[in-house]
Amino acid sequence: MPGRKVSLKLVCACCLMATLAGAPLMAAGFSLLFEQGAKAMGLAGAYTATADDPSAMYYNVGGLAFLKEREFMAGFTLVTSSGSDFTGAAPFPGEGVTEKLESLSEVPPHFYWVEPINDRWTFGLALNSPFGLVTEWDPADFSGRFITTKGSLTTLDLSANLGWQATNRLGVGFGAILRMAEVELNRYQGAINPFTGQIADIADVTLKSDLDNTTGWHAGFLHRVNNSFSWGFNYRSEAQMDFNGDARFRQIPTGYPQFDALVATELPFGAALPISTTIEYPASWSLGAAAALSRNWRVEVDYNWTGWDSFQEVEVDFKGALPNTVISQKWDDANNYRIGFRWLGSSSSEWRFGYVFDETPQPDETIGPLLPDADRDGFTVGYGRKGNGFTLDLALMYLLFDDRTTLVNESGYNGTWKTEGLLFATSLSW
Amino acid sequence: MTPRTALLLGVIVAMAALPAIAQVDTGSVDFTRYASMGDSLAAGFSSGGLHIEGQVLSFPSLISSQTRGTAAFEQPLVSAPGIPNILSLQSLSPLIIAPQPGQAGPLNLGLQRPYDNMAVPGARVGDVVRTRGGGLHDLILRGLGTQLELVASQQPTFVSLFIGNNDVLGAATSGIVIDGVTLTSAAQFEGDLRTIAGTLAAVGVQGTAIATIPSVVSIPYVTTIPPVLVNPATNEPVVINGQLVPLIGPNGPLGPGDHVLLPASAELARGLGIPAALGGTGQPLSDASVLSAGETAEIEARREELNAVIRAVAGETGAALVDIARIFDQVVQRGILQGGILLTSDFLTGGLFSYDGVHASPIGYAIIANAFIDAINATYGGNIPAVTMAPFLLGDLGRLPGTSSVGTLAVGSSFIFTAEAYENLRVALNIPKTKKLLRIKNRRARRQAAAVAVGSDDELDTRSSRRSLRRQRRELRRALRLR
């Protein structure tokens, strides 16, 4: 089976890409809602009640039941951000202080394989990156370096899915998810230099996990009521990931030998301290309805809920070698609202337009340089073209974040954050 | 003026320029003529001395910068190494804190009007109303009147008042609690505070900010040395048969509620307070080095009484109440997190206190300034910008005054707050000499014992207490003259 050999190679290649690629924050929290397929992105993710391509394995696994031919989809999303601009507010760091997040350019991939079993059952395999985060700051003179210099969460989901066409118009789907991830949290350690009373940089701290894994599941249905109307629902379970890794401390000389010697007795420089932490990936569900407005125009509206309330803190356990560190999060559940339009230019091409309003789960108390999140508006345009045995989908998304000001940050880091981002996605199906 | 002082002044001017350009919204009050009254905490006293580098970062100076921009805020500036000579950390092992050498002098003595910052280190509330000279009063008041008279003569539009700390602090730092001597009575405090408030109202002051008194038994001067024996090699408490070893106080082994004051470090270094079996002399620490649990409770109770008076007067006069007491309680309980750095009340490493363990560091004074600004904004409806902390936490403004020398010895944990350092602090804070206080305390104790022995009646008590009060006042006046 030459086809099967090719697809396995692709799986391996995509797996490697996904593992290496960092995924930046382009949906609220650290979800990557729109990076899972170019067709869905073109509709601003309003795809739960449509889900008619292999990316149904992310947007609504119920749609898998209606896919009746072996199909592969591979693609990526190029995420570019000019970085967040931060303007300080009093008391710390204070007015006049400005900072800039390192510019990002990341490429989270997606890969789907659809394999019909019979005229009722369809099997699918998906490899994608539904969560991710990368923030990085140049530590030199960065006023928030004692909070973070780098935060990175890379997640890769491998899911095996089954779609069952219960009736001609109702498809039901279920998938088991194996989630693999690694996390890195770096910052500088500061301390009061007793010789001057000033804060001194004493250590560069790197916390890095191994590649750990956990499991989850998702399920959904898609009901095509008639040729003009459909609705669907998809649920994705929460998943708790326990990470293990190492903490490393590199001493930064202060110019005060006595102080440096004292610091050296307090921190385990040079050693790899075992650490562990836990991250709660949230549950989420989406409900959508799609309708034909005319012969050429179709519209879908979706509502999505994500249970970010589960993400209250990240506690790093130093196994007794040092006191545990708790990074407070205190997130709330969040919603987003999507609408997408399709204009069917011909039987082989269509244009897509979309809009999403995406609420941030992050409260004012914890918005900071590790993740400067905000409510955002997303505007999308997409194009799909069917050729001889293939389909090419392209999409462009512009994200405009609300300016976000906090004066109550728990780490004592106050100011206004401004962020915008541009995403370009392409998916090729054959 | 040292290059660092010039730099500090330059940064202050630069900080002040922003509000000046932006036309700061001060609400319903006018800061055109702003005057500061109070004690060492309002004077910018730090590391045991008045020093220009601390004074330019005093909280009244910072409030002036935030409200009045570059307009001059005149203070009785003192050159390096300060008056008294400021303390510096000379070594981490053994840990030695001692005054810097040299002779300081006033830099602004010729000002042809009272200073804008009239706060006098060591002043009690009664001094604000009645004292015209003596000690640092001579430097700041220059024989022209009392703090209150001089401030009133300027007809300020706004006044900040941070007073009352020395009305309870002397008891904590001397380790000797004598009501009416090291503790001011609530009645006297209230009378004097109302006199101040009434005088300010009479001269047409538009706005006032009054601060409460923070706990004086939670400062590093009182809390740094534990009442148990510590192994100097490990810096961990010594445990014998599963029990901590209490230090020996004047009345026997110390309990968990007793406090050992910072100057006791010199006595501990000589083996006092340490059982003979564990390498000490077996002799007790001096009374002045220990604050018992009972004395601590007495001081705190009085502080609460005085704070109740402050809150009442602020409420009645419509003044902005700056609840430094509450803020400091929060600092003691959980610290203040700024930019990921936890600032605490710990000695040397907490960031908020200077080398004397009593007074704030520049970072601490900036936080006090912001507490004042918050209260003023809340009371008078203004939008005065808070002091930007980044230059204090990450830049040169956070440096303790006069810190340029670097210790050279190896790390260890012996600890000496030198006798000279204590003496300078005692003089600056107007605390009578320990011998004097002990004489008064012992005399009072003998009198009380005698009264119990003969069976006192009310009349005898009244006469005795009047005589005692007169005697105390004489003793105190004599002690103050001896300063």
N-C termini distance of chain A = 16 Å
Question: How is the quaternary structure best described?
Answer: heterodimer
- The CATH architecture designation of chain A is Beta Barrel
Helix and strand element order of chain A = HHHEEEEEEEEEEEEEHEEEEEEEEEEEE
How does this model look, in words?
- The complex is a heterodimer of chains A (430) and B (483).
- With 430 residues, chain A is mainly β.
- Chain A has a single domain (2-429), classed as Outer membrane protein transport protein (OMPP1/FadL/TodX) (Porin).
- Chain A is 9% helix and 52% strand.
- Chain A is built from four helices and 25 strands.
- Chain A has helices at residues 2-20, 38-42, 56-59, 257-266; strands spanning 71-81, 85-88, 98-100, 104-106, 109-116, 121-128, 132-136, 150-165, 170-192, 199-209, 212-224, 229-236, 239-251, 272-281, 284-292, 297-306, 313-316, 325-328, 334-346, 349-358, 376-386, 391-401, 404-406, 415-418, 420-429.
- Chain A is elongated and about 80 Å long.
- In chain A, 51% of the residues are buried.
- Mean pLDDT of chain A is 88; it is low at 1-25.
- Chain B is built from 18 helices and 17 strands.
- In chain B, a hairpin with a 2-residue loop joins strand 15 (336-338) and strand 16 (341-343).
- In chain B, 53% of the residues are buried.
- Chain B has two domains: 3-221 and 293-398, Rossmann fold (3-Layer(aba) Sandwich); 434-481.
- Chain B is α/β, with parallel strands linked by helices and 483 residues long.
- In chain B, strands 1-4-5-14 form a four-stranded parallel sheet, sandwiched between helices. A three-stranded mixed sheet of chain B has the order 2-3-17. A two-stranded antiparallel ribbon of chain B has the order 6-7.
- Chain B is globular, with a radius of gyration of 23 Å.
- Chain B has helices at residues 3-22, 40-43, 52-55, 59-68, 125-130, 136-141, 147-153, 166-174, 186-202, 220-223, 264-269, 293-317, 324-334, 362-380, 390-393, 419-428, 434-454, 458-481; strands at residues 34-38, 87-92, 95-99, 158-162, 207-211, 230-231, 236-237, 239-240, 243-244, 248-249, 252-253, 259-260, 290-291, 320-322, 336-338, 341-343, 415-417.
- In chain B, helix 1 runs parallel beside helix 4, helix 9 (186-202) packs parallel to helix 12 (293-317) and helix 17 packs antiparallel against helix 18.
- The A-B interface holds A 88, 90-97, 143-147, 187, 190-192, 194-199, 256-259, 261-262, 265, 410-413 and B 18, 89, 91-93, 336-341, 348-351, 354, 361-363, 366-367, 370, 385-391, 393-394, 396, 398-400, 403, 405-411.
